[in-house]
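ENTRY TYPE: paired fold submission
RECORD: A
CONTENT: sequence, then structure tokens
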Amino acid sequence: MKKVSLFLAAGILTITALTSCTKPSNKNFILATGGTSGTYYPFGGAIASIWNENINGMNVTAQATGASAENLRLISKGDAEFAIVQNDVMDYAYNGSDMFTTKLENISTIGTLYPEVVQIAASKTAT
């Protein structure tokens, strides 16, 4: 009886493994970028191409947008799955400050693409 139960369990596991190894169905994703004349749009297009070529079942489209603030709103509403945003704007959205009157939900960081160096200038009278 133990051998029969063991054989049935092994058969069920084998069938489960074989059926779960099928090619994943394609899912369409939006990568919100920025305006077509800026840096984020071509960068997003390159990322989408790399993902599409190297991940089975992945179909990502880089979409031109109004940039960081709009991208975070698109993510929060579920109108885009990925977005390129500036880190300060992400912080504003997460905390509900500056251009965001409330905290945005359903947003998360998955990585840093490149550093954005800034230089701050002030007049001598600003001290």
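RECORD: B
CONTENT: sequence, then structure tokens
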Amino acid sequence: MVAVNPSQSATLTFLGTGTSGGVPSIGCTCEVCQSTDPHDKRLRCAAMLETEHTRLLIDCGPDARQQLLGVPFRAIDGVILTHIHYDHVAGIDDLRPFCAIDYPEMRSIPIYANQATADALHRTMPYCFGEHLYPGVPLLDLKTIPPHVPFKVGDFEIIPFVVYHHDLPIFAYRIGSLVYITDMKSIDDDEIPYAEDASLLVVNALRWHKPHHSHQTVEEAVAFARRVRARRTLLIHGNHQIGLHEQTNALLPPDIQLAYDGMQIQL
């Protein structure tokens, strides 16, 4: 077991819990996409973990502007990225109100990522990470981090570890008793201890039954939660095939449920 504890209680807010296309899916008329239950509306996956003194953003996808408009405006102390895919990084430019270089009262935001993600950001968003920034762009401090080495962002000590999105190694994170994993299909045995005995496991589950080459099904996510002995599990990164929120939760064990956009958990 990885024994790391945050210095104080924290609040986890799910800013988005959907897969890469979001829910409703464009053009779809299934019962989930037509649902009027707000729990069935899923923006792209992102979360915010905060204490009184520290605010940490987990991923920053294309819905970031909409998501950040829904939370109180205050400084962001760091962003931890899981991988380079569009639905997890495309909103980085939307951080500019928190750190634009023509707002001198705001400070730069550290962005933490593995080497592959950092390299790709330099290629895909050079105007955010170049040497000569023009007025108005976000002021970001891109930091490359290795797996398994703890680092601190304010009140939080964070340990990145590796899971596989098909054959792409991406980062999952252990933050105290919280484990946050998205886009996982598989994990090596030697990475399992980093996910064990979490008080809260957040993990991806795309849909029921039908296997996917790079994402877990609900059944696979439940089996993983049992393997790592999570005390409570919340499922994210679901598409419209996961079913209606209320009906799906009724089929799941009481300790394993769907997360939803706007859900807050006290840790």
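NOTES ON RECORD B: The radius of gyration is 18 Å. The longest helix spans residues 115-124.
STATUS: closed
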